Automatic annotation (TrEMBL):
The lineage of its organism: Eukaryota, Viridiplantae, Streptophyta, Embryophyta, Tracheophyta. Gene3D superfamilies: Kelch-type beta propeller (2.120.10.80). Transmembrane segments: none annotated. InterPro entries: Kelch-typ_b-propeller, Kelch_1, Kelch_repeat-containing. It comes from Lupinus angustifolius (Narrow-leaved blue lupine). PANTHER family: OS08G0128000 PROTEIN (PTHR46773:SF3), PTHR46773. It comes from the Eukaryota. Signal peptide: none annotated. Pfam families: Kelch_KLHDC2_KLHL20_DRC7. This is Kelch repeat-containing protein.
Length: 365
């Protein structure tokens, strides 16, 4: 609700000041009405992580890398078993692999990890590509991307590993590039990446999903934090970003088609989605900055995109607002872990990096 403040200046400062109404906008104005869900606390992840990434293969949930804090990054994979509801294994990552802002996809056995940021704070990106064999726990490498990228939209589609958008080397400039590489059983079938049709809107932190043999790219943003000029530790410095609600689909003719937008702009949702009953479920994220304070605002809703009707709905609330959460679905339960949560019910700004794991029984209309 927008409330004009009609208080007039008085006293000494009034000589050079006009009576300009000051605007106030609730910090929670972007929250959408949503039903409450019953969330059950599960065993927390071994470490807290922000900008981590995750892949589910059957009942196993592979949680990769991420920041422990802005000054510390993880270099391992934690594995959660949905059947026993326990964290069961840890796998070290290659020393040359990025620690955040990855692209990630799987064929059901091999997990492909593309580019990303190497190191803490706002360090530079790399172009390296790695593959984890989830049966042997061995790592392999593939041809590097033509250029380094931060958090590109990444997915396996029709035998090719597609990498799109993301941020360019300075971490802020959106990339429109779209490359693909033929892969099979964790191996590259080509020596170089192929240039494909550019993505209509560039930038990082979007969901990239293959469903019904269609490739969808959802949400995201243009712009991101950059390294402070001259900082020896590449200290993160805020830049203005634009969060969007766009949804694109790559059709059979390799042309982009615009689908209905999300209920509100949403970013930091790369691994915050699952597919259930021909619907895409997306949880949490970040939305457009507060128009007056310019503060980042987190998302606390659960969204459903029904692929039969091509319509969006808001189906529930999270225990708190949270970004870069990692979502899984098993035996009727919607799970999420990790990310950065809000400062409280009345303050959607980000604060604590978490290791929490939650689940709720999901019933879709």
């Amino acid at each position: 609700m927008l409330i004009p403040n009609l208080t007039h200046y008085s006293g000494e400062g009034a000589k050079n000041a006009k009576s300009v109404p000051q605007r106030f906008l609730s910090a929670t104005f972007a929250d959408l009405p949503a039903p409450d869900l019953h969330w059950e606390k599960m065993p927390s992840a071994p470490v807290p992580r922000l900008d981590g990434y995750a892949i589910q293969i059957n009942n196993l949930f592979y949680v990769f890398a991420g920041y422990g804090s802005l000054d510390y990054v993880h270099s391992h994979v934690d594995i959660y078993n949905f059947s026993s509801n326990t964290w069961v294994e840890r796998v070290d990552m290659p020393k040359d692999m990025a620690h955040s802002h990855l692209g990630i996809a799987t064929d059901g056995r091999y997990i492909y990890v593309v580019s990303g940021q190497y190191g803490p704070q706002c360090r530079g990106p790399i172009a390296r590509v790695f593959v984890l064999d989830t049966e042997t726990k061995n790592w392999n490498s593939l041809p590097p991307l033509p250029s380094p990228r931060y958090a590109p939209a990444t997915q396996l589609w029709r035998g090719r590993l597609h990498v799109m958008g993301g941020s360019k080397e300075n971490r802020h400039t959106p990339g429109l590039d779209h490359w693909s590489l033929a892969v099979k059983d964790g191996e590259a079938l080509e020596k170089q990446w192929r240039t494909e049709i550019p993505i209509p809107r560039g930038g990082p932190h979007r969901a990239c999903i293959v469903v019904n043999d269609q490739l969808l790219v959802i949400g995201g943003q243009e712009g991101d934090f950059m390294a402070k000029p001259g900082s020896p530790i590449f200290k993160c410095s805020r830049r203005l970003e634009v969060v969007y609600d766009d949804v694109y689909m790559l059709d059979d003719e390799m042309k982009w088609k615009v689908l209905p937008p999300m209920p509100k702009p949403n970013s930091h949702i790369e691994c915050a989605w699952v597919i259930v009953n021909n619907s895409i479920i997306i949880i949490g994220g970040t939305t457009e900055k507060h128009p007056i304070t310019k503060r980042m605002m987190l998302v606390g809703e659960v969204f459903q995109f029904n692929l039969d009707s091509m319509t969006w709905s808001v189906i529930g609330k999270l225990p708190y607002r949270v970004k870069t959460t990692l979502a899984g679905f098993w035996d009727g339960w919607l799970y999420f872990t990790s990310g950065q949560r809000d400062r409280g019910p009345d303050n959607p700004q980000p604060r604590k990096v978490i290791a929490d794991m939650w689940r709720t029984k999901l019933s879709l209309q």
